[in-house]
Every structure is written in C-alpha cells, then in structure tokens.
Amino acid sequence: MSVATETVNMAYDPENPRANHNNTILDAVTKDQLNIGLSGQIRYRVAENNLYAYLFGVKNPIAYVMGYFVSVLRERIANFEGKVSETGGEAVESDIALTVHGISINDLRKNLRDLNDHMDQECSVSAARYGTVLEASLITGIDPPEEVESALAAINTAHNQVSSDISLAQASADQRIVESKRAVEIETLKAQGEIETLDKLSTQLFELKKQGGKEALEVYVRNVKLALLNQTTRIVRRQKQ
C-alpha cells in the first residue's frame, strides 16, 4: 500500500473509463438547468491514522471518495447564486452584463477559488469515512455548452468594449480636472504676484512722498507718463467744446 500523494483528473471514474467523456470533463447543471463542463484535478493520499477504514471499510475507497466529491461539487454548482449586494436587497450577480440564462458563467469562473475552498472543506470528512485524505481540489475550467459559447463571447466582447470606453472617459475627466486645478493655481500665483507688486509700489510711493513731499510724487508721476508715451502708438484726445 502506497501512502504517497496522488493526482487524478476530477472527472476520473475508477469503475468506468468511458464515463465523464472518457474521464476528461465532468458534467454539471446550474440552478437554471444550464449544462456546463468542469475540468481540473484533485490530490489525495491514504490516511495513515485511519488505515482500518481504508483497508476494510470499503472495497474501493477512491471510488467512494470520487463519488462523494462529484456529488458535493454538483450540489454546489446547482445551488450557486450571485453575491448579495452590500447595500442589501435581492441577490444580484457581480456581472449582470455577462449573465446567460440567469447564471453568470464569468461569475462562476471568478469564484473558482471559493469553489475550491468549499470543496476542500466539505470533503475533509473523507479521512474518517473512507480512510482517504483529500488534500486539495483544483477546478481549472468551467465551460458553457457549445450553443451558448458564441453568445457568451459576444457578450464578453461588448462588456469589455463598454468597460474600455468608461475607463477612457474617466481618464479624460481626471486629466481635465488636473489641468483645471493647475490653471487655477497658475492664475492664483499671477494674481498674488500682481498684488505684491502693487503693495511694494504703494510702499515706495508712500516713502517717496514722505521724504520728498508732494513735488517729488508729481515728478515721479510725470516720469511714468513719459515712459508710457514712449510705448504709445496712437493717442486719442477729446476736443474741448
């Protein structure tokens, strides 16, 4: 008797090599009667602390373990539903756009890890019953029937296109928001610079008037007007009536 860990296809039937599509794909039915194909592997070994059950409990322990595993898996698939929304209310699926006949195939695929964890937990009693430890199950593929495969592919393509458009629109909006914030910051800095210039000019004129009197201030204003005249290309004067 070998106690080494062995790996077999999850569709393996030790009593019928032609079952489950020649022991390659395991059939299951979803809650809405949609036939799907499951593929993957399971690892098992002899329970050294319960050799009696393995040697004398049943005639072919691996057949019982595989039958128990398949039953639990099919029951889980048959009762699978989408996740309940966090805001409460009725059960909704994580990807409504990818729903086929009420059950989201993509949602099943996204929850492969949860399915595997559920199988490991449910099959932990196999050591006590049959003397065989189911170490791990690895469901790697969930395929819809051929008649809906093309429809599912079209739905996925449309959903991906919508997701891409939403992402591009969001990125464009974020970019415009950032540009607007930068423009506001630039204009604010310009305004602050002009305010500081005016404040300094006011201080200088006050000191000029304080030190040189009103005449010095008038001279300063005249010089400023002359500088402006040098930059002027056209002068419009009002005629006195």
Task: Please give a structural write-up.
The chain is an alpha+beta fold and 241 residues long. The chain has helices at 19-23, 51-57, 61-78, 105-110, 112-122, 126-130, 146-230, and strands spanning 6-9, 26-29, 35-46, 99-100, 103-104, 132-143. The strands form 2 sheets. Strands 1, 2, 3 and 6 form a 4-stranded antiparallel beta sheet that branches. Strands 4-5 form a two-stranded antiparallel ribbon. The N and C termini lie far apart (126 Å). Residues 84-103 have low confidence and may be disordered.
Sum up the structure in keywords.
four-stranded antiparallel sheet; two-stranded antiparallel ribbon; 57% helix; 241 residues; 7 helices; alpha+beta; single chain
Short description, anyone?
The protein is an alpha+beta fold.
Reconstruct the topology from this structure.
Blueprint: E1 6-9, H1 19-23, E2 26-29, E3 35-46, H2 51-57, H3 61-78, E4 99-100, E5 103-104, H4 105-110, H5 112-122, H6 126-130, E6 132-143, H7 146-230
Antiparallel strand pairs: 1-3, 2-3, 3-6, 4-5
Number of strands: 6
Low-confidence stretches: 84-103
The backbone outline, from C-alpha atoms, is: rod-shaped
The mean pLDDT is 79
> How many strands, what sense, and barrel or not for the largest sheet?
4 strands, antiparallel
Q: Can you count the helices?
A: 7
Global structural class: alpha+beta
Q: Report the radius of gyration as a whole number of Å.
A: 40 Å
Q: Indicate the proportion of strand residues.
A: 5-15%
How far do the termini sit from each other?
126 Å
Helical coverage, percent range? 55-70%
Q: How do the helices and strands follow one another from N- to C-terminus?
A: EHEEHHEEHHHEH
